[in-house]
Amino acid sequence: AEDGRLPPRTPTELRIAAAWSTALGVPRDGIGRHDDFFDRGGTSLAAVKVAIALDRAISPKDLTRCPVLADLAALLDLRRAEAGSRPAERPAHA
To answer: Is residue 72 part of a domain?
Structure first.
């Protein structure tokens, strides 16, 4: 981008950028990898909208702890990898 922003590059980053775009009311191509959700105008309500848009794979608290797009994507990818590497949880009463 001409403004020096690095565009999202991974599928997860692109998915998060799309959710931010909707929640923040900004063009998707105006969101960079190193953008901070709250610096871009994010609020607690917008964070809830992002969590819902991402099928609750993250929580608003996760977004508060990892407000930079690339960092949030890394968190989400890590959780997916961990979920795929361990056997499914069995209910305690089974």
So the answer is: yes
pLDDT (tens digit, 9 = 90+) per residue, 26-84?
A: 999 999 999 999 999 999 999 999 999 999 999 999 999 999 999 999 999 999 999 88
* Measured CA angle at 77 (ends 74, 82), to 5 deg: 125
Give CA–CA dist 89/82, Å, rounded: 12
Structure token digits, residue 10? 């991974």
Q: What is the pTM of this model?
A: 0.85
49 inside domain: yes
Total tally of structural domains belonging to the chain:
1
Range of the domain at 21: 11-80
